[in-house]
Amino acid sequence: MRQNFIGMVVSTAMSKTVKVRVPKRVMNRHVQKELLVHKNYMAHDELEKCQLGDVVRIEHCRKLSRHKSFAVAEIVRAAKSWTDPETGEVHR
Question: Which string of DSSP letters, residue by residue, matches 27-80?
Fold first, then answer.
């Protein structure tokens, strides 16, 4: 079974690559408090469909470059966007 993570796209500045932030909850042993930590993964986006704010599922694959060993398997939820009727500007 391949390794899967669900996270949010935080950067699309590179071609065919997206940066996905994957959150994880860990327990601090000393104060017995649950903390939310995250890790960023570079993922391959062949069709360049992902946009900023999309929630995606990434899947482990063979190493594609120095930092990329994951590929976008599916877009779970697209980012919400709306168009200003007066200016026609798209907001996220």
Answer: EETTTTEEEEEEEEEEEE-TT----TT-EEEEEE-S--SSSEEEEEEEEEEPPP
